[in-house]
Give the backbone structure.
Amino acid sequence: MNIVITDDYAAMSRAAADVIASRIKEDPRCVLGLATGSTPIGLYAELVSDCNAGEISFGEVSTYNLDEYRGLAGDHEQSYRHFMQKHLFDLVDIDPAATHVPDGANDDAEAACWDYEQSIFEAGGIDLQLLGLGHNGHIGFNEPSDEFPVNTHLVKLHERTIEANSRLFDHIDEVPREAYTMGVGTIMHAAEILVVASGSDKAQIVYDAFFGPVTPQVPASILQLHPNVTVIVDEEAGALCV
Ligand SMILES: N[C@@H]1[C@@H](O)[C@H](O)[C@@H](COP(=O)(O)O)O[C@@H]1O
């Protein structure tokens, strides 16, 4: 595992964008696993500017997002599909048909999750998976539990996650209680993983995830067992790692 501590959020975003941009340059047809949340917004902006500058093209890239709220259609402002359109897909030269987010509007959880897992498999798997970290160590929406869920599945969100994500909704009651998420197994099958974290409120979980015991109570801790992980954090999030 390679841990990079950068000066600030801007430097973290640039360093993470460099990892993704290099992958696209090496393999223009790569399959990227993408994440939502506040942390990757800066790195998506960097990728948009690289694309506009003609340095990279998403023309042959395909993408799979980690997760989506169950019950929100893609045109809902708080859906992760909408987030991705706004921060990346609508701003680069990607083929809309090559962008994938679990279908939150499909109420049939089994079908929605199976279709998603199957589609990743048919694409040949994920080459580079981007991850943020929840305060409780969740990756995607894999919440702390007694076991590591393997495949894409339906989850009930923990109260702390609902609270953290309520900042993006008008009222906490509007935050969906359930989501579809790639499983920990889906994530671990990616050839390469890139984790980003920023801010002092992430310092403890960065430490627990990468220096603590591997346990499903801290889902991100399993990344210690992956052969190709890069963690890029700013100074505040990396404060306990030095
Ligand atoms: N499902 C997403 C995660 O994929 C994300 O990593 C996490 C952290 O978000 P943030 O970057 O805003 O702290 O939030 C959400 O719960």
Q: What stands out?
A: The mean pLDDT is 96. The chain has one domain: 13-211.
